[in-house]
């Protein structure tokens, strides 16, 4: 498992309950900071073509325990989503450049 160096989180799956009461599995793709707040980007599990993701604020409960919170403020959500998009762009750039180094 890959570990986030700054926070020590391991990649994991979480199960959330949707509005209809159905349990849905999500892959925690990234945990990152924007300003002073911590966020998690989740991708639906069991999906081959990833076209969507969800961002939640993480609330530190202490003792390495966190709770995911919905982000009601549109401006905060947009900032957190933009930061995740930048992470994805950097990841894609690094993957493309790794192939160049092998040639």
Question: What would your notes on this structure say?
Answer:
The chain is an alpha+beta fold and about 100 residues long. It has one domain (about 15-100). Helices cover about 30% and strands about 40% of the residues. It is built from one helix and five strands; from the N terminus they run E-E-E-E-E-H. It has one helix spanning about 75-100, and strands spanning about 15, 25-35, 35-45, 55-60, 65-70. A five-stranded antiparallel β-sheet has the order 1-2-3-4-5, with helices on one face. The protein is globular, with a radius of gyration of 15 Å. The model is unreliable at about 1-10 (pLDDT under 50).
SSE layout:
Elements: E1 13-17, E2 23-34, E3 37-44, E4 54-62, E5 65-69, H1 74-102
Antiparallel strand pairs: 1-2, 2-3, 3-4, 4-5
Briefly characterize the structure.
28% of the residues lie in helices and 38% in strands. The protein is α+β, with helices and mostly antiparallel strands and 103 residues long.
Keywords:
five-stranded antiparallel sheet, 1 helix, 103 residues, 38% strand, 28% helix, disordered N terminus, alpha+beta, single chain, globular
Strands of the widest sheet, in order across it, are 1-2-3-4-5
Number of domains: 1
Distance linking N and C termini: 28 Å
Structure classification:
alpha+beta
What global shape is seen?
Answer: globular
Count of DSSP helices? Answer: 1
Number of strands: 5
Main pleated sheet: 5 strands, antiparallel
Strand content: 35-45%
Task: Indicate the mean pLDDT.
Answer: 84
Q: Low-confidence segments, ≥5 residues, pLDDT <50?
A: 1-9
- The helix fraction, in percent, is 25-40%
Work out the radius of gyration: 15 Å
Order of helices and strands: EEEEEH
